[in-house]
Protein: DUF2752 domain-containing protein
Amino acid sequence: MAAAVAYFGAGLALMRFGGIDVLPPCVWKLLTGADCPGCGLTTAMLHLLHLDPAAAYASNPLVFLVLPAVGAYLLRDFLRFSRSEATQA
Structure:
């Protein structure tokens, strides 16, 4: 678990301070040519990582709903996992 957190933190640090902006292509847009509802979320996340909420909102305002929801889900999942590990020990 600690290794996963370290790798994730290192990746965020490289993206934030190393000037690495790697955006994966949108498969939906490649196949259909049309924007999907999630288009701009990755760009918005990168703007938030660079502490630019105005640019994030311009990319996709949905990021301000998706990010807290995903964070709450991950926190709930982590707490559930840590409780199950504590009862098994």
About this structure: The mean pLDDT is 81. The chain has five helices and no strands. The longest helix spans residues 63-88. The radius of gyration is 16 Å.
